[in-house]
Amino acid sequence: MISFCQFGAGRIGAIHAGNIARHDGARLLHVVDVNEEAARQLAAQYGARVSSADAALADPAVDAVLIASSTDTHASLIEAAARAGKAVFCEKPIDLDRARVEACLAVVEKTGVTLMVGFNRRFDPNFTKLQAQLRSGRIGKLEMLAITSRDPGPPPLAYIKVSGGLFRDMMIHDLDMARWLLAEEPVEIFAAASCLVDPEIGAAGDVDSAIVTLKTASGTLCQIANSRRASYGYDQRIEAHGAKGMLRAGNSPPSSPRSPAIRRRRPAAPTGCAPWCSPMPPSNRPRAAGRCASDTPTACGRLGRFLLTTRKIQEAGCIPGVIGCQTTRGGWAKDDAVGGMCAMPEMSSFFGYIISE
Q1: Chain segment 244-259, per-residue pLDDT in tens
Q2: Domain 121-275 falls in which CATH fold?
Q3: Does domain 1-120+280-357 have CATH number 1.10.4030.10?
Q4: Contact, 228 vs 216, CB < 8 A?
Q5: Which residue has better confidence, 301 or 149?
Q6: How far is Cα 2 from Cα 185, in angstroms, rounded to an integer?
Q7: Would you say the pTM of this structure is higher than 0.70?
């Protein structure tokens, strides 16, 4: 049984707490939030207690810390949890400043604790299958990649103001998917954005609609389209076009990556549910002792330079800051962009959690 302390009792915190409660191998002991009423309600719902940060981290019964609080608290809480010897799952981003991310990860490395960052899309069964089919060469060399990500509606304005902006808050997931599926680093990036959904978002200094085009050294092209609004519900799709065919992953939960022949028999029909909303079946819950399986997508905190060739993006002024790292292999790799330290996560119904047996 893994005992959790959770920081954050807001919207995403409520989802995480529910996932912990539904997992047979986990329990929630402490809830910490500056909003005491929200903390009380969440703690009461799942049989936990409201605690201060110091008290929760000092509890020897706590094995792991889940951080779902505001972005500006992430790095400090990761460091505090690491120094307390607790495994950490943290919502993205670690921080909006590259130097702060590096300093935080240095503490994690020194203490040797496990850190997982909340990039969930690699765990989506449809996207995982699409990636596997790309690697198997089913459509030959990948030539063009299209990633669509649209939310049903924008988050509260108060969240927008502290989120770091659409690129670092929302498109960060799609940039991660692009790197994972392209299997090579982009060398060129072009970005265009507008405020089309809510003028208040623009007044807050952000955008709500954006398109980014990436180009790799081999010439492969990728386009990412984001919107804070989709009147028909969550819209999360990927289309991969290659020399020998095309693969698609659509919105319908039962759907999976398809070749054009299969697609003609089963046309995609967008629904109001994101692909990862439903619990992941046991067959998609890999485990390993001590290190990651070589072909299993995992998320870790190691070097926040995962956001493409971040320096080029920062110079372009499009996506400043660095947020976290993905790895498909355990242990350390020579290339910081693909290596990392992580333990195999047990999968829950929404995000991956650090639950090992």
Answers
A1: 999 999 886 544 455 5
A2: Dihydrodipicolinate Reductase; domain 2 (3.30.360)
A3: no
A4: no
A5: 149
A6: 37
A7: no
